[in-house]
User: Fold these one by one.
Assistant:
Number 1:
Amino acid sequence: MHDWDRIVEQRLPKLKLPEAREAEIREELAEHFAEMHVDLLAKTGSAEEAMRQALEEIGDWHSLARKIRISEMLGKLSLRVRTFWLPGLMGFAAAMLSGIALSMMWRSMPDGGRALRSAINDSGLGLAFLGLLQLPAGFVASGVAWYLGASGVRRACVALFPLLVIEMAFTLTRLLGGASLHAVLTPEPGIILYVGTGLIAGGLPFFFRRQRLSVFTCRWLAQ
Amino acid sequence: MNDRELKKGSAPLLILSLLEEKPCHGYSIAKLIEERSGGKLRFHVASLYPALYGLEKQGMIRGVWEQGPNRRRKCYKITAAGRKVLQEQKQTWAVFCSSVERVTGVRYA
C-alpha cells in the first residue's frame, strides 16, 4: 500500500496558502490518487504499473500547484473586481510606470544620447516622441485585460481607442505648435493625465457591459 | 479553438451538471465525466481540482468532508447560486450548439 499523503507532500510544491487550506488540498489529492491506484491496480494487475500510470496523470507538479494557487486567488475576488477593476488597475499601473520611466530616461540621457535628444527636440518632435512611446504601455494594458479573461483581446483593443485618440491629439498639438492643449499635456503630470484618461475612458464601457461579459469570464476564470 | 480549450471552457458546465444530480467527490466526478462521454472527455487532476476550487470559491459548489471506504474524502454539493449559473450556462450552451449546427450542418447525437 503506497503512502499517497507522503508522495503528494514530497512532489507538490508549496502552494503558499494558509496552512489548514494547504493541508486540506494535499489530503484531497492524496485521496484521489489512492482511489485511482485501486482502479488502476484492478486494471493492470501490477502495483508498480498502477503507480506509474497514476503519477503520469499529473506530469508537471509545479504547473498543478500554480493552477491551484491561481484558482484560489481569483476565486476570492468578486466578478466585478476580476473583470474590471483588476485588469483596469493593472493596466493603468503598467502604463503609468512605463510612462514615468521613459520620461526619466529621456531627461537623464547619457552624453551619447544627448545629441539624439537635441535633434528630436529641435525637430519639434520632443514630447510627441515620448507620447508615441506610450503605445507599448497601452498594449500592456490590453494584454493584462486579455489574460485575466476580461473580454478577449479584440474587445480589450477597443478600449485603447480613446488612448490612441489622445496620443494623436498630443502629437498633433506638438507638431502644429498648439499651445493651449500642449500646455496641459507637459512632462510627467501630462503623461499621467493623458494615458490615464485614455485608459479610463476605454475601460468604462466594459464596466457598464460587464453582465454580457460575465458568461465568458466565469468560464475562463473557473478553470 | 482546440480540444483543450473546448474542454476548459465546458468544465464548469460539466461539473455543475453532475453535482446537480447528486453530490460527488473529486475522483468520482472525473470518472463520471469519462464514463458518460464514452471516454472522449477526461479531466485530469491538473484540470479538475483547480476547476473545483474555483467553483467553490465562487460559491457555486460547497465541499464537505465525509468518511469514505478507507479514508475521509471531500464531497461536493451544488449550491443555489451554482444551480442558477448552471441554468444560464445550459441555455448558453444550447444556443451555441444549435447555432453551430445551423452553420455547419453537423448533427449532434
Number 2:
Amino acid sequence: MTQLWWTQVKSVIRLEMKKTFVARRGLWIYIVALLPLLIFFAQSVITSRQREHSLQIASQGEKALTYQDLLAISSGMTSDEVIARLGKPGVRRQWAVAHIHYERYQYSDGAEDLSLKLADGKVFDVRVGHVRNADDDSIAFAGVFQFFYLRLAIFFGCLGVFMNLFRGEILDKSLHFYFLAPIRRDVLMVGKFLAGLIATCVIFVTSELLQIIAFIWSYGPNMREIYLYQNHGLANSAAYLGVTALACLGYGAFFLAAGMLFKNPIVPAAAILIWETMNPFLPALLMKFSVIYYLKSLCPVDIPTPPGTPPLLALLVSNPDPVSAPVAILGIVILALVVLYVSSFQVRRMEINYTTE
Amino acid sequence: MSDHIVFDDVSKFYGEILGVNRVNLSIPPGVTSLVGPNGSGKTTLMNLMTALVRPTRGRIRVLGLDPAEPEKLFKVVGYSTQFDSFPKGLTGFQFVYSYLRLGGYDSQTADQLAWRAIERVNLTDAATRNAAGYSKGMRQRMRLAQALSHNPRVLVLDEPLNGLDPLARAEMIALFRSVATEGCHVIISSHILHEVDAISDQVVLLSNGYVVAEGAIHSVRNEIREHPAQVLVRCDRPRDLAAKMMQSEHIIEIRVHNDERGLLIKTRDADNFYLMLNRLALNGIEIESVAPADDDVNSVYEYLIGNDEVVR
C-alpha cells in the first residue's frame, strides 16, 4: 500500500511541478524572491568598483601607504606636512574662489580612501573612507533576511504557491481531475504539498544562496577568507539556507490549509501575518504555534536594537525567548505536521461546486 | 459486492438551495438515463455517486462501495463530467495517461491503456496535441476516453453527446451500448430525448430535485394513468375496427388515418385493449401492425414533467 501511495505521490508531484514553476500567476514570486539578490548584487558591484578606484589612487600615489598613515592627517596641517608624510597624492585637483586657492588631495592604501581639502595650503577637511566591518555587514544582511526575505518574500511567496495548490485548481475548474482518480484525498494533499515545498525551496533557497554569494563577493579575497572562516560566515550561510527551507515548510503547511478553508487569500494572509507579527506579545504557550517563533531562534545573527529604540519595536526585533536549534527544528516540523494532519480532514470533506466559487 | 447503485433517502442542499431531495433509487446494470430539465438534479445525482459532493442526508453505495473512499470507488467508476477544463499544459494523451498514473498504474500499462481508450473514442491523431486547443467535441471525447481508460464497471457520463457531430454521436451511442452489454452500468444524463430513447434500458425522470419516475420506459409509461395510452394500428378495414372498438368502455378516442389504412386509438386500459384487439383480429380484420404511439421517453417526459428545455 505504501508503495502505491508513493507512486501516486510522485505522479502528483510530476503533474504539479510544471504548473507551479511556470504558472503565469506565479511570476511575481520570482520577482519577490530575487529582489534581495538585486540589492546584494548591486552592493557587490559598487564595492568592487570602489576597490578598483582605491587601488588606482594608491598606485598613482608617490608612497605605499597604510591605514595608519591615512589616519595621521588632521585639520590645520600644511600641504608640505601632508606631502612629507604621505608623499604626492594620487589625485590632486585645484581651483580658486574669491582669491582663495583650494586643493583636493586623494590618497588610498588600496582599500580605504583619504580625501583632504585645503584652502591656501592648509587642510580644513579630512575624510577617511568608512572601513567595511564584517560584523556590521553581517547585521545588515541579517536585517534584510529577517525583515524582508523571511517575513515578506518567503511568507507571500509561500502564500502564492501553496494557496494555489487547491484554490488555483478550483478557479481553473480542474480540481475534479484529481478528485475523480482512485487516490486517497490525503495522499493527493501530501503530493501537492511536497510539490509546493520543492518549488518554494528551489526558488527561495536558490535565491538565498545567490544572495550569500553576492554578499561575500563584495569583500576582497582576504576579507572574504576572514568572514567565511573566522567570522562564522560559512556556518551562518548554512543556517540561512536551512532557515529558508524550514520557513517554506512551516508557511507552506499553513497556506495549504488556508487554501482549502478560504476562498479569498487576503483573509488568511492577513490573519497569519498578524499572528506572526504579534508573536512576541503572545503568551508563552501560544507563541509556540507560530512559525516565526522557531525561525527567529534559528537565525544565526541577532539584530541589536540601538539605544533609544521604542520598546514596542525593540520587542519585535529582539528574540527574548530563543529555543535551541534542535528544539526549533523539531518544533517547526511538528507544527507543520500538525497543520497537515488537520488539513487531511478538510481535504476529505472538500466538495466540488465550481459555480459557487 | 452488490451490483446496484443505491441511493437510500438521499438529499443534498447547497446552503438553502435544493439539489435533490429524498432520492431512493436502485440502479441495475445497463444504460440508465437521467432525464430532466436544467436544475432538476441530474448532475447533483452524478456528483453524489462520485463524491464530488456529499449528501446532506442519506446513504449512497456504488456496487457496495462508499463514494467517500475514492481510492476504492474510482477503481470501478469512470466519470466524464460536464466541466470543460483540463489541467493546464497537458496533451490529450497526457490527460488520460496522468489519470492512470494517479491510479497507480505503471508507466507501460498506463501508456497501453491510455492509447486503447483514445482509440475507442477515435481521437488518436489529435492525442499528442495540447488539450487546450481542442474543439468542444474533441474535449468531450477525450474526457470520455479518460473515464473509459481503466475499464470501469460503472461509467457515469454527464451530457456525453453535447458538442458531438451526428456521426460521432452515433459512434458514441454504439460505444455506450457495447459497454453496457459487457455488464457495465452506464449512467447518462441528457436533454436529447430521442437519443435517450435509443440508448436507455431504464430512465430516471427528475424534476426540481425530486425523482418523478424510474424504471424501464414501458413500465413508467404504464404507471401514468391520467394520460390514456395511444396505440397506432394499421389494418385493412379501419372503420369497422373503430366501430367495434367504440363498444368498449375503456376506449376514449379513435381517429382514422387519412389514408384509410390505420387508426390512432386512445385507451385507459392498454392491457384490455390488446386482448380485445387479439379477438377482433381472429374475427376477420387483418391487422398489419400495432405500435404504441406514446410509449417513449418523449411522451413520458411530457406527461410527467412538461415540455421545458428538452430537445426532441
